[in-house]
Give the backbone structure.
Amino acid sequence: MNKTMSITIIGILCLSMASIAMLSAYAASPSYDSATQASIAAADWPMFHHDLAHTGYTTAAGPTTNVLAWNYTAVGGMWSSPAISDGVVYAGTLQHGMMYAWNATNGHLIWNYTAGGQIYSSPAIANGLVYFGSTNQRVYALSTTDGHQVWNYTTGGEVHTCPSVVNGVVYIGSSDNKTYAFNAANGNFIWSFQTGDNVISSPLVVNGVVYFGSYDHQVYALNASTSDKIWNFTAGASVESSPAFANGVVYVNSHDNKTYALDAATGIEMWNVTTGYDLCVQASPAVANGIIYTGGSFDNNIYAYSATNGAQIWNYTTAGGIFCAPAIAGNVVYVTSFDNNTYALNAQTGAFLWSFQTHGLLYSSPAVANGLLYVTSYDKNIYAIGQASAPSPSPSTSPSASVSPSASATETPKASETPGPTSNNVYYIIAAVVVIIIAIAVVALVMSRRRK
């Protein structure tokens, strides 16, 4: 073998080894779930169901007792689930459509803002702004500092869903049958996707893909940049539940009484399980440590299923319906019931630990941060349960923000866009495979010429 040929083959082998190393690094890269958990401070629960994958899970410890730390009486009942960021807890009211900000440790009012309509939407906090929707058809962005309005956008229907904010984009659904994407800084329209019915399901955004359900019985997966449909799955009834994501699987509930596990890349059904009552399942599932937790709505049960095959692990029966997503902190599941109680259960066995009773219906998902459990109720109160693990920052209290309305963001035509892959990792895999194929071909050619 001559010197030139030796150098050529060595170079090809190096390229092949580099490609294999690239593939190995991709395979060994941390999952979205672990990366997400690491990026959210233990003292935060900054959006509906904690993170962009809507797992409803935090590694931080929750309260071990049902002692009341504080409560605050607002102007109206609350079905908006709390969000906590940087020592401040946020939630909105139904009556008067008021968004509040409280000190998360002691419940002192920091500011409030009257949006109008009713606020079912749970807020999301990102980059110094609070995002939420209202039944007055608008999506709002307020300053976390003093509650002044930064922008709003008027959709074509009531906005019940909870926003997700990622890479400078706000994703949110509307009762005008659409899911929207807006510029998070200024509210400028980016795209909308039309479904066949109301969108009550809150979008989750993972690896460049937006997942959500619709009352048209579909679960959708869209390219987050372009809104191009990647796949859709047809359930047996309306999908009001917000999906949850873990380890390449999307979990979602439907009004057909079923919890579905779908392959996140293809939408292919992996398994489904039926609850024990012939009415809708509205609650969004939570997922942690290989277990799916979900409410059975009118059958009064919370269920724990294997995330792998849907086998039931345990169930716990309350005295009322369970319509809201559970929250998991460490090894404890917290769930609200229409019997006005919030329950703390052992996550592995379902054993009862304690409960806390309010004076009104609970139609919001609990949130856990800084050792406290936060729950909103239709009795007009937000409750902080437990004992704070450490003092939170105490923003200076200011009067209710006096805000003058700003112009709604102007919708701009959707640009002509080319569908892209759902993740940049796809490019790396393709490039590595191409390099290996070329390397094999060149070696074969060199060896052929050598024989000649």
Remarks:
- The chain is about 15% helix and 35% strand.
